[in-house]
Amino acid sequence: xxxxKFYLFFVIFLFGFKTIIAQTSDGKEMRGVWIATVxxxxxxxxxxxxxxxxxxxxxxxxxxxxxxxxxxVFFQVRPAADAFFDSPYEPWSEWLTGEQxxxxxxxxxxxxxxxxxxxxxxxxFHAWINPFRAVATIEFADIxxxxxxxxxxxxxxxxxxxxxxDPGIPEVRKYIVKIIKDIVRRYDIDGIHFDDYFYPYPVRDxxxxxxxxxxxxxxxxxxxxxxxxxxxxxxxxxxxxxxxYDAVKNENPYISFGIAPSxxxxxxxxxxxxxxxxxxxxxxxxxxxxxKWLKSGWVDYVAPQIYWPVGNKYADYKTxxxxxxxxxxxxxxxxxxxxxxxxxxxxxxxxxNPEELPKQIQINRKTPEVLGSxxxxxxxxxxNPLGFCDSLKNNYYKIKTTPPKxxxxxxxxxxxxxxxxxxxxxxxxxxxxxxxxVFVTELGNKIMISWESKEKNNDLTxxxxxxxxxxxxxxxxxxxxxxxNKTYILLKRRRLPFFRKKYGITVTATGKSQTxxxxxxxxxxxx
Length: 527
Fold this sequence. Notes:
By secondary structure, this protein is α/β, with parallel strands linked by helices. It has 15 helices and 19 strands. About 8% of the residues have low confidence.
């Protein structure tokens, strides 16, 4: 009888526990918030605060977030080719001190201060950068003499009320990468973060027609075989994102680099691979092919801003979560939430419903690929709309945790890679070549094993072996668990960690000749 009672208690405990813990297998979950500095949206509340007041305001904000379970801040350190840190390349932000180029008095480095305060509370600090916005609202902007728009006016175009870097100019891309490398090199950050701003959002004229981005001369000068300007623009951003990723990882491979695009990549009506939605599409209007960046391994995570409620007829929240969960390509997936939309005076009934945001958290946690949330934005969250912060503190975030580990970084306490016996043997001139760069990514209650191949041959078949043997002879035919023509595979694992068992995974490749390549390195995982 006592045994029965114990197991009954254990089941009830697990059932109740499940409502308050993250649904990732190890309990880790991204619980982030965006802190916007452009035009004082979140911080600081005024350009005329003293240094002491600036520090106090940030600490109070951080204490509030820590109390409700937030474990990461995405702080806008470069809103418009300016800096909330001591930059050797760009001037101090006007939204920090009231005058662009004017340092805080008495001097301090705000980013160093903020990182230190985050560390005290176990909160990650991600440096949020707007890469191409150079001047926000030209008419009212305070521009210093040494601002890059004055030093290199040929790098920019004006569109609407703002001024932008021209992404088609190679020197522009190199300049912004240099800014990012400097941040990664000098500051103890956890990540570099971009939101949805790349090419500017469309502006319409008096006839409601979209005004063309004024970069045709750049297209004529730097076009290298593209038949249309749209694909050329997308290629400019492809080159830029890859360069940023490489720069970040070369400086520090443990620093993450991620993107928070608008919530719709493409609509199904325009592209069969797109989502079943009818809304603004990032690919078509901002020229950002986020799926390509994910497939190519140029970002560590994606955090789509799904700013529609559940049941929206144009862009349903659940539909978009499900779509993104199928298009992560082994990268981490977080969801951006529109906390600013919620409230008793909200524009729609859905956002007036106190269950809307909690419902979104529940959908996330039922989707294994979703590893957390980021809330837009800080001041909106601080207002505790419809009691949402109370729900986080007392229910969803009651048990504190840390964000998931960076994908594709093989940490010694999690995964082990060993060489196979045949890895030192030069492969024969076979049609297929040995898979390499085998990586492991945690996706909730699944493990993704992904790899790369030097062969571009679509006819390759990859054979996946799993063994619990301690021997390095893994490629016995009895150990084959799957064959695929994709460069990744998802493996399920037991929900409770103490039930898991250690296995070695290795991959080979075959072509039309059926000659099997040497095996990849072995990765050990617990399933």
